[in-house]
């Protein structure tokens, strides 16, 4: 016996609302859908302590635009913006304001940490050939085999370590994703992680997403040396990981062998992991880069993070990777699988060609950046800044206080509007913005003409108080 059921449905036509573009104050709330202006050097940080900054923030709308239905009287239904508490402190950014001011005043941009020149022709041609050859579908989740092998080969040349490209190399969408996958894949809520300030802002954001307990050790000018006694008193059996960045953004500091050996011995003694961001390893000028994983007893507890963008001036390709022993790679890959799953296929094939570049490429890269650095550093000193030493990266940090502004944010706004040059306020790199209020960061990853023009503007218009 069959029973039939008659179900009657009444459909109401869906009315599509008319959407109006949002209006913006001097700042945008950070969202993946509101990147109308580039962030500076990948930084999307927040400053919330200075009164002038907070006064400006009061003009920002935190409400959604109303949806209008033609069949109803015009009215506004205001909904507050929503964000998870773990990300709430990161939602506003000073870099939008800096971008808008730079465009308005025609400022020379020495703030953004990406080159204003293109990458090598042989790498771009390799990408074109890969696209033409039909290598355009999903890549294997943890990387195109040829790129995994090229990363392994490069790592052996740089560190002497032999790693399994299939089990110990994970290709990611830029180093920022490698950082996120490492934090989310290996850190549990409540785990204690030590970071060194100033730091790249995605460290704090991704640790917050992982629910970590962050302990911060501040590196201070002039040399930004690691306070080893403070580190010894901070690290303990409760510490899950130490996060380092060498060469270091924003200061240009390179961790010395003594510092790295001390960190290594403390991590071994307390059974602590190390996450090491080495994206600027090929931009080491005054000392040799030392990879933490190469120190005795450290490979088994280290995740090494790197990328293609800085070395090959191809930051928009977003090709990064994490190298770790299999037991740590497991966690990284688990998170990576549910973040991006796979990275751009043809660019991976081109990245493999890039990493097999002859040593002469890296030597020429260092010579070129050394010349750019000299132009900027000598120029900044001539202008009257106190310039702190930079041994690596393409950044220089200076003390702006000779020019009479109350803090780094005020100085950077003045530099754009009155002088026509962009720098980055370093307070955005600290847990406590007060620690960075006297410092600003310039970049020299620009062509020499741009650097010279910026220096001339500062010499002409920047007046010491």
Automatic annotation (TrEMBL):
Please name the Pfam families in this protein's record: Aminotran_1_2 (PF00155)
Q: Which UniProt keywords apply?
A: Aminotransferase, Pyridoxal phosphate, Transferase
InterPro entries named among the record's database cross-references: Aminotransferase_I/II_large (IPR004839), Kynurenine-oxoglutarate_AT (IPR051326), PyrdxlP-dep_Trfase (IPR015424), PyrdxlP-dep_Trfase_major (IPR015421), PyrdxlP-dep_Trfase_small (IPR015422)
Q: GO CC: one term?
A: cytoplasm
Q: Which cofactor does it need?
A: pyridoxal 5'-phosphate
Q: Molecular function terms in GO for this entry?
A: kynurenine-oxoglutarate transaminase activity; pyridoxal phosphate binding
Q: Name the domain of life.
A: Eukaryota
Outline the extent of the Aminotransferase class I/classII large domain: 108-457
Q: Which CDD domains match?
A: AAT_like
Matching entries from NCBIfam families are given as:
PRK09082.1
Q: What is this protein called?
A: Aminotransferase class I/classII large domain-containing protein
- Which source organism does the UniProt entry give? Camellia sinensis (Tea plant)
